[in-house]
Amino acid sequence: MNLPSAQIIRQDVTRALEEDIGSGDLSAQLVPETVFAEARVITREHMHLAGAAWFDEVFRQVDPRIEVRWAAADGDHLAPGALLCTLHGPARGILSGERAALNFIQTLSATATRTHKFVRAVHGTRARILDTRKTLPGLRQAQKYAVTCGGGWNHRMGLFDAILIKENHIAAAGGITPAVVHARHQSPGVPIEVEVENLEQLEEALMAGVPRILLDNFDLDTLRAAVSLTAGRAELEASGGVTLETVRAIAETGVDFISIGSLTKDIQAIDLSMRFDGL
User: Fold this and answer.
1) Is residue 218 helix, strand or coil?
2) Contact at 8 Å (CB) between 54 and 9?
3) CB 204 within 8 A of CB 176
4) Going by C-beta distance under 8 Å and a sequence separation of 6 or more, which residues neighbour residue 9?
5) pLDDT tens readout for residues 26-51
6) Element containing residue 184 per DSSP (H, E)
7) What is the mean pLDDT of each run of 10 residues along the chain (279 residues)?
8) Residue 213 to residue 105: CA distance in whole angstroms
9) Which among 105, 189, 113, 99 has a CA at the least distance from the CA of 150?
């Protein structure tokens, strides 16, 4: 996805600052109001950058006199020790915004970095790496943007922009075919995908003309059989327990997409440091 709107970024940052600063930063008030400072942010590990707009917005809200100068852009790969950006402005504001700003960029860069590892692992195959709805509450648009910074692709944003008919939907609707028929009648023109658990269900979904089918926890032999059976009649998405160790073999079966929840939920924040160069 493209960078979320300024309104979304502003709302994300406002919530973060309200949570962190509350009625005022008592620690920053120890520094005289007239003191200005220079600071720089560096990475201690390999990373793919994401989240610069959220970082900027933190300091815009804390004190618009703070100037942020970027040495890198979202999507860039950075090695340990590399400079992300420098800051100049009132020391109080830099101190007050430091944690919220770093939280955003550490988290979003972690998503971008993890995504890129999977993208690199399937390079040369037809498979595209997709995210899921397993995102941090309140940061879905931010994390889905970070996935694209790492070279991945977005699945549906939420429950409102596409229909994914899963096991419980199928059971409640009385089968794949009636569920698909009802979905088309209820939401004409909305993308429809069906999750299947075996080749028999795959065949039913194909007969119903479903354009994309999710193959849930298929082993490699069954994935290959599914690709052969489908023969281009629908796009195929593999999902379920995908790891960096298994993703290449899954991609080589010929599926079109591989969706991975861990891109956004099982991440470890990038190790960044903000250092003051002098007061």
Assistant:
1) coil
2) yes
3) yes
4) 3, 53, 54, 57, 142
5) 999 999 999 999 999 999 999 999 99
6) helix 176-186
7) 95 98 94 96 98 98 98 98 98 97 98 98 98 97 98 97 96 94 96 98 98 98 98 98 97 98 96 87
8) 34
9) 113
What's the sign of the alpha-carbon dihedral 199, 129, 254, 159? positive
The owner of tokens 């990373």 is 47
**Residue 76 DSSP label:** -
Residue carrying structure tokens 């420098």: 86
**88 burial class (0-12, 13-18, 19+ CB within 10 angstroms)?**
middle
Q: Which residue has the tokens 């994401």?
A: 50
Residues with catalytic roles:
99, 134, 166, 195, 216
* Predicted TM-score of the model (pTM): 0.95
Q: Which two tokens stand for residue 248?
A: 């290449």
> Cα angle vertex 186, ends 184, 190, to 5°?
55
**Where do we find the tokens 């195959």?**
125
Total Cβ atoms within 10 A of residue 172: 8
Chain length of the chain: 279
